[in-house]
Amino acid sequence: QLQLEESGPGLVKPSETLTLTCNVSGGSISDSSFYWGWIRQPPGKVLEWIGTVFYTGSTYYNPSLRSRVTISVDTSRNSFSLKLRSVTAADTAMYYCSRHARLNYFDYWGQGTLLTVSP
Amino acid sequence: QSALTQPASLSGSPGQSITISCTGTSSDIGNQNLVSWYQQHPGKAPKLIIFEGTKRPSGVSHRFSASKSGNTASLTISGLQIDDESHYYCCSYAGGPMWVFGGGTQLTVL
Question: I need a labelling partner for A23 at 20 to 30 A (CA). Which of A56, A62, B27, B71 fits?
């Protein structure tokens, strides 16, 4: 059974860079059938797609976040990561990693990691 | 890209059927049939319940079904059960490429 697990600092200061990692188990991140995505959800608000990566390193980003986001993949560790630069309070959210099947739908999700941006 | 439009809340009684709408534009929902639907219980990750417009993943109840007409996708839950009380989100490919979610619908089973 595929499992995804996010890890991250929990708390970052404004203007800093956030780095989150998603560890994938029960399947290979190098499976060419699948992409891997990040989605976030501010408290009490809606889901927002952040970006998606393929095992080759090809990426797709939400235009609203593209200038601050980098998503990368580490096939040796079977994981992928999200870097978000110059964070503000508006970036406070639950961050989920997910398998982006057929670049079409999100079929497996991690449990989420809460990121708070505060001085 | 704006979020897809869903009713903020709906309610129904056990055994009834309800339909949640998800309205987009000709650039997203209206352009293809790649809508997916997710159920999210409080404090939990979203769970995929419909993909590629009308398909159910293995293990999802047949009480969940979906359709599309023009720029609007719909999720129907028949034979409502208490456990169906949850948030429901639609999602669509919106070109670009990018993917956009709906604003979410809180379903209450009275």
Answer: A62
- Write the pLDDT tens digit of every residue in B23-72: 999 989 998 889 999 999 998 999 999 999 999 999 999 999 999 999 99
From chain A, pick out residues whose CB is under 8 angstroms from the CB of B57. Answer: 107
Token pair recorded at residue B92: 């669509």
Do residues A60 and B59 touch, judged by C-beta distance below 8 A?
no
Asked if the C-beta of A46 comes within 8 angstroms of chain B's C-beta atoms, the answer is yes
Residue B82 to residues A29, A47, B8, B17, B109, Cα–Cα distance (Å) = 37, 24, 19, 13, 6
